[in-house]
Amino acid sequence: MNFLENIFDRLQQEPERIVLQEVRDGQLVGATAGDLLALVRRARAFVRSAGLKKRDRCALLAPNSVRWAALDLALMAEGVLVVPLYSRQAPKELAAMVRDSRAALVCCGDTALNDALALELIEAPRMALFEEIFAAAGADIGDLPAPLEISNAVTIIYTSGTSGEAKGVVLTVGNINHMLGCTAQRLDTLMGQPRAEPERVFHYLPFNFAGSWISLLSGLSRNAVITLSTDLTKLADEMRVAAPEYFLNVPALLERVKKGIEEQVEKRAGVARALYARGMAAWLRKREGKADALDRLWLALANHFVFPAIRRKLSPNLRALICGSAPLAVETQLFFFMLGVPVLQVYGLTETTAICTMDVPGRVEPGGVGSAIEGTEMKLGENDEILVRGPHIFPGYWNRPQETAKVLRDGWFHTGDQGEINAAGNWRIIGRIKNLLILNSGHNIAPEPLEDKLVRLIPGAHQVVLVGDQRSYLAALVTGDVKPEAVEAAVARFNDGLPHYKRVHSFHICPEAFTIENGLLTANGKLKRDAIAVCYRAEIEAMYEKKTG
Questions:
Q1: Are 80 and 93 part of one and the same domain?
Q2: Are residues 61 and 106 in contact, defined by beta-carbon separation less than 8 angstroms?
Q3: Distance (Å, rounded) from C-alpha 128 to C-alpha 307?
Q4: CA distance 462 to 481
Q5: How many domains would you assign to the chain?
Q6: pLDDT tens digits, one per residue of 215-242
Q7: The domain that contains 114 carries what CATH number?
Q8: DSSP secondary structure, 120-147, as one string
Q9: Are 500 and 428 found together in one domain?
Q10: Tell me: the pLDDT tens digits for 495-528?
Q11: For residue 131, what are the CA distances in angstroms to 108, 118, 135, 245?
Q12: What's this model's pTM, rounded to 2 decimal places?
């Protein structure tokens, strides 16, 4: 039984069980397994009426919703390749992906999305709104998916395109089968099995990202109820309504949550604020093995009066936070551990069906990303590049054999990431090889760890981007409403103790943050370094004409 047959079988066996729900105006609006199957039947009826055949491509452009999940299942059940797209991405970029995939149908969540995309498509394929799709009569459509072989493709997920046009990653039935088996194993360890009550999962990351989609399929494959966010501006409120036991995150959100908690604590009465500060200091000393009797007292008080109250505000049921897509600051991971909420890190790429490594609950090393998942081989190649092979590795990029040949060599997928592994088998990610800055002195510098350190030293800074490839020293672009003297002080602290080639000698403040909308971030929030270098060419040149510090 493949992953899709398993999901349909579970839905048929428990038609009255709530499997998905949306937060609407502070209330939960649920969909049972039977409700979801009814939506799937309607969508399948529409797909057939539209004349789509096996291996045709269908672009799916909408925010997360129960209907998104239903349409995704319907398309796969008909043997159609799903091309999920990001509803916040620029219409021009979306149009390029629709053309590249040669989609026969585009399904849009609303009229604005539909119209914006249509303007960019000279020869548009058929386009349909969700209202039309789910108005179809699906009573005569069965609940069995079309037979699929292990090697059959089910989706084309476009990569971020940090330095060029996005590429379509083809994923197969076999890729998904293997990955869902791996996620089930780690989730069973986290949650403890068997259990009668459904797992409570919150979900806010867009389904067009591979990790988010795997999380959705994992929830549908097990005894879980998934609560979908419908308004990212109300995420904290939605999280409290959902009261999840675990959910997938990106580092940016956890950083915001940490900052928000610290700001709230600062506003509290003196006793509560002091207890929090002393409890945190005691926790850190205990972790270093330096706690004394007074530390143990303060920590006991904080663990009784302060930390549990903060944890309950996040969710009274929270067992763990799962985090991926980019490195998480060690300080942030330790912060949540102090509150009693372990942060489990995941590492992977779209080409690896989202995951290569996962933290094992109870055996987390802060700053690392865990051990390789079952069936995965990983090793270090030239320049400490991480090489991976296993049943979760994609067969290739859509219609790009040359690009595929560059990364799939001698049976190994070349990730482009630098890493290291310790004696316990736990991995740590250093940065992207293509992002390495090579000074004219010959020193190779991975910018990501340094950028992460510097941005946390500058009050109000949104991002820091280091430049200096083929230059004599490093310089920094700093975004946000920050004062030059604050940046200068932060740079001085940053440079203290670093070798000369890792020090920042000049900076430029960019008031406007790098965003998806201004074309300087990818759809999943990664820096488009090449685009930033072009946009700020004059400012970068100016930093090398006159340096500070």
A1: yes
A2: yes
A3: 49
A4: 8
A5: 3
A6: 999 999 999 999 999 998 899 899 999 9
A7: 3.40.50.12780
A8: H-TT--EEEEHHHHTTS--TT--SPPPP
A9: no
A10: 998 889 999 999 999 999 998 888 898 877 788 8
A11: 9, 17, 6, 33
A12: 0.89
